[in-house]
Amino acid sequence: MKRYGFIFARGGSKGVPGKNIRPLNGVPLIGHAIRAGRDSGLLDRIIVSTDDPKIAAVAEEYGAEVPFMRPAELARDDAPEWLAWRHAVDAMEAEDAFDLFVSLPCTAPLRSAKDVRDCIELFERGGCDMVVTARPAERHPSFNMVTMSDDGYAAIAMPPGERITRRQDAPPIFDLTTVCYVTTPNFIRRHEGVFQGRVKAVIIPPERALDIDTEQDFAFAEFLMERNQ
Questions:
Q1: Which of 12, 99, 135, 195 has the fewest C-beta atoms under 10 angstroms from its C-beta?
Q2: For 102-156, how does the pLDDT look when each residue is reduced to its tens digit (9 = 90+)?
Q3: Which InterPro entries match (predicted)?
């Protein structure tokens, strides 16, 4: 079985400019994703899809391959990443068919190699079309999340079937993370999104599940990495 890791890193990032090659604890953000994929020991190749020559150069410096460049229309803010996944699958399979697609977003630099292995191994045990990652949620829509009406009144977002007085009694709920996604090239070609098939999840502890979208996230990731050294 050929397992290929993919990292999707476009050049434009408004929340954190230059995010994908910005140093985090001395390593560019994309370098952390490359290292986790390599250290998992289960990926035959690590491919980077980018529209930015600077990102491509850094990716190759850290041991990834950049066999194609992403078209500009797939690197816009409003371009669905699923289409970038499909482009990458088509570009690779034109020369080298493979069996397993593993996406390792740059935005989760605290993931471990074991997290990647756990996702791949769960998928290969069968029974699903996609593996995603999630973390225990800090808020619950049946207890302490609300919606707001147009006239300013708050209401529980997802009213429970029975009265809940403590958050601990609410059914478990999880936040999706960007630690890892595992599926097949065929699923990506035939579908339009993650939840169009049978999905299983690997639960990631909060300290490894941080998604970097803002400067505050970046600063918190630096703090966690320094604390763990």
A1: 195
A2: 999 999 999 999 999 999 999 999 999 999 999 998 888 877 789 999 999 999 8
A3: CMP-NeuNAc_synthase, Cytidylyl_trans, Nucleotide-diphossugar_trans
Same-domain check for residues 15 and 95: yes
Per the confidence metrics, is the pTM higher than 0.85? yes
CB 48 within 8 A of CB 7: yes
Full residue range of the structural domain in which residue 92 is found: 3-136+173-228
Residue 196 CA to its chain's centroid (Å) = 17
Spatial contact of 218 and 148, defined as CB atoms under 8 Å apart: no
Pairing of strands 45-49, 146-148: unpaired
CB 108 within 8 A of CB 218: no
Query: 57 and 36: one domain?
Result: yes
Quick one: 26 and 125 in the same domain?
yes
Q: How far, CA to CA in Å, does 182 sit from each of 5, 140, 212?
A: 9, 27, 20
Q: Reduced to 3 states, what is the DSSP secondary structure of residue 97?
A: coil
Cα angle value 161/167/171 (rounded, 5°): 50
Residue 130 sits in a domain whose CATH number is 3.90.550.10
59 and 107 both lie in a single domain = yes
